[in-house]
Structures are given as structure tokens and as C-alpha cells.
Specification:
It contains 48 helices and six strands. With 976 residues, the protein is an all-alpha fold. The protein has a two-stranded antiparallel sheet with strand order 1-4. Strands 2-3 form a two-stranded antiparallel ribbon. A two-stranded antiparallel sheet has the order 5-6. β2 and β3 form a beta hairpin. The longest helix is centred in the N-terminal third of the chain and has 27 residues. The chain starts with a helix and ends with a helix.
């Protein structure tokens, strides 16, 4: 084996020292080349004659000098007649610039009231209906901007003002301000007379048949005064008479847009013209303008919606339906309530589906107003609408809606019994309610038919608007009602919670005690919980504990009640009982955190008893206030860390930003923000008792526990939080989590953070004086191995740019050259990849990986089109693959790669031969380190190439027509 390797090395050395010969000039065997790859003579497959050229001879000579490292890559490309790296880059940039500089096709954008995505959102959907088959009609450049504005406005605008006079650049602001308005008016009037005369002259010569001259004069008028709608109309009429309907339509649309007095009939005519020309986007825009002028007529809305649906613009069609529901006159359009009901249901379902809550609320409000117009009941929809407004914090809108639509059942009066709130209904268009907020002397007169749920909502609105006296008066009326239905519980609980949040503790206590006479309300745990909160706020802790215990009796899974009870028990000195209250219960759904000391004791108990899942939940709650500091004070995290200890490296801003990016949108981030905010607002409770060492230990235990459960994403998030935590950083304990960052990032497959860590570590090692030269080289090799692991799983242009910059600083680094070659090989820049690989190969000729990469590069180059030296490139690739075969001991891998190479070269008989040899070989054996520290040799199934080779072999059999043999291969090797 050693003799064969020496002979092969001599042949490779001869190829390096001598100028390569073309295969038609001499047989490879005659010049001393080893033509056997895997014991197979491959020379017979490359004997097809290729016409030799002087260019090929020069290329071979240049390649030989390049392989001997006598010239660099750019010189090699110059001699071979190719392009250098810089020229390739410039060509790419020029192509991008040319593509960027090409003017886009002129397509008039769509129009809609507040429906447009912007002037750049162009309707190209009409091409699906046949319009795209016609060529684009070019419009003068000075009209492009104006064309983009035609259908992108939310409402009809005034004509663009013409300003013929501009102050000279040298004039000051004061001088410009001194220009007389009279002079400007005279100049504009003079110019207008001139342009009117020019338009008249154009009409006259057009009547004489001089069409081109008339168009030129009218376009000049447009250039001088772009807001002159008459000029656009005349140009449109000329184009229509000339038979160019699409151009006539464009100028007609411009004329109608510029004239604020364009009647509805003209927009309808333009829409019909656009429809005849199959310009559905223009037609939809024109009907949109017509519907704005006459919004009460459903016909225009209907046609616009039909056109929008035809062009697959369903979102705009739904918005048009919503506008039609709000503005259409049912009498003029002969529409009944059932039509409105079906339409509102369709619109509301669509906006709920796309999570557009604002539009869904508008559709629901429209239904309520239409129901009142037709005398139909919509009480449940009205209650839902008021609840949605309250949920969004729009208390004034909710209050106005209830007072306006329930005016017959609820009146607002003063001390003398006179109404003080005026309600004006405008049919289906809306209502006016004044005054809002209510005055302090306002009182309510409520009928028995008024639902308690709406009364509670009115009281909630008054509480949040600060109307204390009217709210308490309404609550007194509510307390006098009878509660015999389950549906009243939730409104009463919401009202009680609002009273507690408003800190009306005495009134809230009386309100809840008054309601306890009803059996249904006595059995409600949420009311007892609010009652306990009020008692705790009034310092009556015994009664508060009794209330919380009643809550747990009625609902043992009430998390907040359990937490509050444990806190009061801890405050009263009953520590063991407080811990027992929290033990064995899931506290994930709480709205605030338990006492920190209880959480620490519970966490220690769970960790010691190996109850990992419960420990993770408890530790997350314990660390949440400390993790929240990162969100509460981001400036503290963004500051550059300067460590006094010279052995601790300062961290880059980029690495910290990458760690923050890894935290974003994670489950733990949402949990920390929700509970951290509530905890921070509780100023009477301290969550800053743990020192840096204790905090470090809990974070490390949490990371280990998450790793045991293979929850790597959560493990990375905790590691990033601990790495950025200010208290840990100040005590220089963050070095632990700094070292864990790369491991956690790789496990969680966060390749960006892994790359940023490897880049920071590389820069730090290069600039550090702590390493001697041999040790530094070893560390740098490990860094490049870690970085290459990231590149194998993720590709990004920033990675390649960093490698190229690092190569400039370290020109002889083989690892960087190999990584750069890999990036170029993946992106298809084979010549650059070949140059990088050959530079590494010169110093590492027995490295099987480099030989494989060079052979693979030559193979890819041989498969490119328009090559006159295809066979010579393939032979060179096979020469390096032969070297790879001799130096690589894992024969199954070698035979598979050889078979894949011949498969790519379309030499199928050799590909079949090597695939079959792959199936005959056994999978490789690797040494595995066991848990007790011993080593064990076992077969590595993940490195087994049998299934890959069998699949490719079956494909070859199937493509050749031998289906039976392909099925046998599948059944033997690929059946699970």
C-alpha cells in the first residue's frame, strides 16, 4: 500500500512540475499517469477527440504555473483569458445597477378610500384577464408621477396648484416674502391666457387634420401646467378618435382626477370604457370614485366589488363592502335587512379571520345601527360591541353607544329629575351624545327591562372616566336588582374588579357584602378573591386570609388566591403552612409572583427531589424579576463592559445584540414581560434579595434542567438572560454563561448567535496577550472548526465577507482558505474555490478532504456548458479523486463519492460499479466515549452510506428501463 501511495505521489508531483498535455496529444498511460480509479481503467471513457486551440494550450500552461504557486489567481485568469475576482464583482454590480435603472412598466395604481397600500402598489392582475397580452403603452416621463397619484388618494383632492414663479437661489427668505401677491396673480393670469390660446390653436389645427402637431401642442400645455384638466380631456378625445383607446382612457382618468367637479356620470363612463378595454383595475378605480360622489347608491359599490373580486383583490373588496354597509341608502337601493345581515356576517368573519379587530368592530357597529334602523333586535350584538370597546380602552365610545341606543330604558337626570344628556340619532349614520363625561350631579333612571350586564358596563365606563358620583349611584341601583341568572356573574365580577382597581375600597367592600345575600353570588370564587384583595388593602389580614381560603374551597386551582394566601401566611409567621399552600400546584397562570423566600424554598425542595419539571416552573418564576431588568433598563445592557480584571475580556456590542435577538419572541420573554411588569409595580415587595452568586447558581441549575429535558431553545433563552443580567455581570460571574453561549446556540440551532460568538472569540484571541504563539494557533484552529460547523448548517453572505476580510489579515491560514473555498464552491464560483483549495493542497498533499474538494471542484467545472477542455478537467478531477482514494481509509465513503462523481459525469456504468461496491462494504466503526469514561468501538449508523448508494443505484436502473432490478434494490436496502 505504501509503494502504491509513493508511486501515486510521484505521478502527482510530475503533474505539478510539468505542463499538462491535452489528452488528444498523448495517451495518459504513455505519459506516466495512473489511469486506474478504484481498480478501474477510466481512460477509455475520455478518448473522444476535442479540437485543440491555442487558447487551451495557454490555459494549460497557466494552470500548471498556478498549481505550482508561481502566480496568483488573478494572474492565472488573465493568462487563461478569463475574468478576475474584481472584474466578476464589477460585472455583477453593473448587472444589478442596470436592472435597478430599468424603468418599471407604467401601470396605474388602484384607488380606494383608505384601502390603498400606497402609490407603489400597482395592479397588474388585469393581465390574467387578457390585458397582459397587449404591449404596454408608454406615457411621457413628466406624467409618470402624476399617473401614480391618480388612484392613490383617500378622497378627491383639489387640482394641483400651478406655481410658475420660483425665487432665485441667491434670494433670501425676506426677499422672497416681499414678492407681491398681485404680481404673482398677474403672471399666472398672463400664463393662463397664453396656454388657453395654445389650446385653442391646437383645436384649430386638429380640425384641419394635423393630429401630430395638435398633440404636440397639447402635451406642451400639460408640461407647462400639469393641473390643466381641459388639456388632458382634449388629448384623451384625440386618442380615442385615433383608435388608441387605452391611451385615451389614461388621459381621461387624469382629467377626471384633476377636476374636482367631475360628475359621477363621467366616472361611470370612464369605468365602462375601461371595462370594454379589459382594464379592470382602471374600471374598479373609476367606480370607486363614483361611489364616493354618490355613496348612497349600491349599484356603484356592487360593480366595484365585482371588479375587485375578478382581479383577486379580496381584501379591498371586503373593505368596499364595509364602506357600502356604512353608507348605502337602503330605500334608494331597495335593500332589506336580510341583505344587510348576510353582508355584515361575511365581512365580520373575514376581518376576524385576518385578526383585523378594528374593522371587525366597525362591521359589528354597522349591524347594530342597521338593526335599529329596521326595528330589529340586536341586544346581544350591542353588548358584544360595548365589551369590545371596553376591552380596547375606548370607554367614551362604549358609554355613548349604550346611552344612545338604550335611551328609552336608561335616562340621565340631575337632582331635579330633568334630563341632562342629549341624544341625537342620525339614522344609520351614527349618533351624538353630550355631555361626556357626565357631570358630578348626574343620576340614573333605569327601567326594569334594562339588562344588568349593560348597566355594569356603563358603571365600568364611568369608573374609568373618573365620574365617581354617577358610578356609585348606578352601583346602588345594581345592588337593588335581583340576581337569579348565571349570566350575571361575569359582569358583576368585572364591575367589582374595576371598583378595586379604582381603589374605592370602602365602597367596594359594601358593594360585595350587599351582594352576598344572593346564594348564586356567594358561591362565586372570583368575587371572594376580589373581597380578599380589598380586605388586604384595608390591612384586615385575618378576614383576607379567610376570604382566600374560601376561594380555594370553591376553586382549588385558583392560582392567584393560593399565592396571596401563602404570602399572608408568610407575613403572619406561618412559613411551613405557606410552603404547604404552594406545594404541588402549577403556578404558571398567575398574574403576580409569590414571595421570593417561598419560591427559593420550594425550588430547593424540588431540585433535591429530582422533580425537574416542577423545578423549572418554580425557577422561572423566581428569576423572572431579575430577567425583567434587561427589558426595563436596556441602556444598562447596551453599555460597553470594561472589566478591571485583565484576564476577563470585554464583550462586543454585536454579541450582546445577538443575545438580545435570541431572546426576542420567545415563550420565556413573554412570561418575563407579563409577570415582571406586575412585580415591578409592587413597590411594597422586595425582589432584590438574592446576591450574584445565588442568582448565578439558580440560572445554572435551570440551564442544566432544561438540557436534561432537551428543551434547547428555552435553555438558550435562559443562558442569554443570565449572560446579560447586570447583577451577574457586575460580579464578573457572567463568564460561565459566556462560555455556554456557543454550546446553547448550537443545540438550539441559532446559527447567527453561534457565528457571532466564534467571530468575537477569534478577534479576542488575536488581540490578546495572554496566549503564546503555539497555544494561540491551537485555539484559533478550534475556533475555525467551530465556525465551519456553523457554515455547514447555515449560509449567509455576511459569513463569507468576514472570511474574506480575515484572509486579508491572515493570508496563509489554511483553515480560512478552505472555508473560503467551500463558500465559493457552494455559490458556484468554481475557479476561486479551486484557487483556494490548491493553495491548501500544496502544503497538505496527503489530506484526503482537500483532495476530495479539488476533485469535486474539477468535476463541477467539467459539467459546465461551453467548455472546450471538458475532458481534461474531468481527468484532473479523477486524478485528485485517485489521491483521495489512496489516503482515505473509509472505503464505503470513498466508493460512494466515486460513484456519485461518475453519476454526475453521466458515466453510468462506472457509477453502477462503485455504487455496488459501496453496498458490499461495511459501515465504518467509531470509538464512543461511555459515561464511565471507557471507550467502546461500535458501528456508526449515521455514517452508513448504504441507503444513499442503493437509492441512486435504483434510480439508474429505473432510468435505463430495468424496473424489476430497481425494485429488488428498494426491497433489499430501502424497506423500513
Amino acid at each position: 500500500m505504501d509503494e502504491s501511495m509513493d508511486e501515486s505521489f510521484e505521478s502527482m508531483q510530475n503533474m505539478q512540475d510539468l505542463a499538462p498535455m491535452r489528452h488528444q496529444e498523448a495517451d495518459p498511460a504513455d505519459i506516466g499517469y495512473d489511469v486506474n480509479v478504484g481498480d478501474v481503467d477510466v481512460a477509455a471513457h475520455f478518448n473522444e477527440p476535442v479540437a485543440g486551440t491555442s487558447h487551451d494550450a495557454g490555459y494549460d500552461e497557466a494552470l500548471a504555473r498556478f498549481m505550482r504557486n508561481e502566480i496568483d489567481y488573478d494572474e492565472f485568469m488573465q493568462q487563461a483569458g478569463g475574468t478576475s475576482l474584481e472584474e466578476e464583482t464589477l460585472e455583477t454590480d453593473e448587472e444589478e445597477d442596470e436592472s435597478d435603472s430599468l424603468p418599471p412598466p407604467m401601470v396605474i395604481p388602484k384607488g380606494e378610500m383608505k384601502d390603498n397600500a400606497g402609490p407603489s402598489s400597482l395592479l397588474a392582475h388585469s393581465g390574467e384577464n387578457g390585458a397582459a397580452k397587449r404591449g404596454r403603452i408608454e406615457v411621457p416621463n413628466n406624467l409618470r408621477l402624476l399617473m401614480q397619484e391618480v388612484m392613490s388618494q383617500d378622497e378627491l383632492t383639489k387640482p394641483i396648484p400651478f406655481m410658475p414663479h420660483t425665487a432665485p437661489e441667491s434670494a433670501t427668505t425676506a426677499e422672497v416674502g416681499m414678492v407681491s401677491k398681485t404680481a404673482l396673480y398677474r403672471e399666472k393670469k398672463k400664463l393662463t391666457k397664453t396656454l388657453d390660446a395654445l389650446m385653442g390653436q391646437a383645436n384649430l389645427i386638429y380640425a384641419k387634420g394635423q393630429t401630430d402637431e395638435a398633440l404636440t401642442m397639447l402635451l406642451e400645455v400639460i408640461r407647462q401646467e400639469p393641473s390643466n384638466s381641459d388639456a388632458y380631456r382634449q388629448v384623451a378625445e384625440i386618442y380615442r378618435e385615433m383608435g388608441e383607446g387605452e391611451k385615451g382612457l389614461q388621459y381621461g382618468m387624469l382629467a377626471a382626477y384633476l377636476d374636482s367637479k367631475t360628475p359621477c356620470d363621467e366616472w361611470v363612463d370612464l369605468a365602462e370604457q375601461a371595462r370594454d378595454l379589459n382594464c379592470l383595475d382602471f374600471a374598479a378605480a373609476a367606480y370607486g370614485r363614483a361611489s364616493r360622489i354618490d355613496p348612497g347608491l349600491w349599484l356603484y359599490w356592487e360593480k366595484r366589488i365585482e371588479l375587485l373580486e375578478a382581479t383577486n383583490l379580496r381584501h379591498l373588496a371586503m373593505r368596499a363592502r364595509l364602506l357600502a354597509l356604512q353608507q348605502t341608502d337602503c330605500v334608494r337601493s331597495n335593500l332589506d335587512f336580510d341583505w344587510f345581515h348576510v353582508m355584515v356576517k361575511m365581512v365580520a368573519e373575514y376581518f376576524i379571520e385576518i385578526n383585523d379587530e378594528e374593522k371587525a368592530v366597525q362591521s359589528l357597529e354597522t349591524f347594530v345601527m342597521r338593526a335599529r334602523q329596521f326595528g330589529r333586535s340586536a341586544a346581544s350584538q350591542h353588548e358584544t360591541l360595548a365589551g369590545m370597546w371596553i376591552g380596547k380602552g375606548k370607554f367614551k365610545e362604549a358609554l355613548k353607544s349604550i346611552l344612545a341606543l338604550c335611551h328609552d330604558n336608561m335616562k340621565v337626570v340631575d337632582g331635579q329629575g330633568e334630563e341632562i344628556v342629549t341624544v341625537k340619532l342620525h339614522g344609520f349614520a351614527g349618533y351624538d351624545v353630550a355631555p361626556i363625561p357626565l357631570p358630578a350631579d348626574a343620576r340614573f333612571e333605569v327601567d326594569d327591562d334594562m339588562p344588568i350586564s349593560l348597566m355594569c358596563k356603563v358603571a365600568i365606563c364611568l369608573i374609568n372616566l373618573g365620574s365617581k358620583a354617577p358610578a356609585q349611584h348606578l352601583c346602588e341601583i345594581i345592588m337593588m336588582r335581583s340576581f337569579s341568572d348565571v349570566e350575571y356573574i361575569d359582569p358583576i365580577a368585572e364591575l367589582a374588579q374595576s371598583i378595586y382597581q379604582a381603589e374605592w375600597y370602602s365602597f367596594g367592600r359594601r358593594f360585595l357584602e350587599q351582594l352576598q345575600q344572593w346564594q348564586m353570588l356567594v358561591e362565586e370564587p372570583q368575587l371572594w378573591f376580589i373581597y380578599g384583595n380589598i380586605m388586604a388593602a384595608q390591612k384586615e389580614f385575618e378576614r383576607a386570609m379567610d376570604a382566600y381560603e374560601r376561594v380555594l374551597q370553591l376553586n382549588p386551582s385558583h392560582v392567584d388566591g393560593r399565592i396571596n394566601l401563602s404570602g399572608l401566611q408568610q407575613r403572619a409567621g406561618m412559613g411551613e403552612k405557606a410552603l404547604e399552600t404552594l406545594k404541588d400546584y402549577d403556578l404558571e397562570g398567575c398574574t403576580h409572583l409569590p414571595d421570593e423566600r417561598l419560591l427559593q424554598r420550594q425550588a430547593e425542595f424540588l431540585f433535591d427531589n429530582n422533580r425537574t419539571e416542577q423545578f423549572i416552573k418554580t425557577a422561572r418564576m423566581l428569576l423572572t424579576p431579575y430577567f425583567y431588568e434587561i427589558h426595563r433598563d436596556p441602556d444598562c445592557v447596551a453599555k460597553k463592559r470594561i472589566c478591571r480584571n485583565s484576564t476577563v475580556w470585554a464583550l462586543s456590542t454585536t454579541l450582546r445584540q445577538a443575545a438580545l435577538h435570541a431572546i426576542q419572541n420567545s415563550t420565556l420573554e413573554k412570561f418575563v414581560k407579563r409577570l415582571g411588569m406586575a412585580t415591578y409595580q409592587q413597590t411594597n415587595r422586595s425582589y432584590d434579595d438574592m446576591d450574584a452568586v445565588t442568582l448565578h447558581d439558580y440560572c445554572l441549575k435551570l440551564i442544566e434542567s432544561l438540557g436534561k429535558l432537551y428543551r434547547y431553545v428555552d435553555m438558550l433563552t435562559v443562558c442569554c438572560y443570565a449572560f446579560l443580567q447586570p447583577k451577574i455581570t457586575r460580579d464578573q460571574k457572567s463568564i460561565t454563561f459566556q462560555n455556554l453561549l456557543y454550546f446553547c446556540a448550537i443545540k438550539a440551532e441559532n446559527w447567527l448567535l453561534g457565528f457571532e460568538y466564534a467571530r468575537w472569540y477569534h478577534q479576542t484571541v488575536n488581540n490578546s496577550v495572554l496566549f503564546s504563539l503555539p497555544e494561540k494557533e491551537v485555539v484559533i484552529k478550534r475556533i475555525f472548526n467551530a465556525m465551519n460547523y456553523v457554515f455547514c448548517h447555515s449560509q449567509n453572505v455576511s459569513y463569507h465577507r468576514y472570511v474574506m476580510r480575515a484572509l486579508v489579515k491572515n493570508p496563509g491560514n489554511h483553515a480560512l482558505q478552505a472555508i473560503s473555498g467551500n463558500n465559493s464552491l457552494i455559490t458556484g464560483t468554481y475557479r476561486h474555490a479551486l484557487g483556494e483549495f490548491l493553495r491548501v493542497w500544496v502544503a497538505n498533499k496527503n489530506n484526503p478532504l482537500i483532495c476530495l474538494l479539488i476533485g469535486l471542484t474539477f468535476t463541477h467545472m467539467a459539467c459546465k456548458k461551453d467548455l472546450s477542455s471538458r475532458h481534461m478537467l474531468a481527468l484532473r478531477g479523477l486524478a485528485f479523486l485517485r489521491r483521495y482514494e489512496q489516503t482515505r481509509s473509509v472505503k464505503q465513503e470513498v466508493y460512494y463519492n466515486l460513484g456519485r462523481t461518475f453519476h454526475q459525469l453521466s458515466i453510468f456504468q462506472l457509477a453502477i460499479y462503485f455504487y455496488e461496491k459501496t453496498l458490499e462494504e461495511q459501515p465504518p466503526k467509531v470509538v464512543t466515549l461511555m459515561e464511565d469514561g471507557s471507550e467502546e468501538v461500535e458501528v456508526a449508523k449515521r455514517y452508513d452510506m448504504t441507503r444513499f448508494a442503493a437509492h441512486n443505484l435504483a434510480l439508474l436502473y429505473q432510468s435505463s428501463g430495468n424496473v424489476q432490478l430497481a425494485m429488488e434494490v428498494y426491497e433489499k436496502y430501502l424497506v423500513i
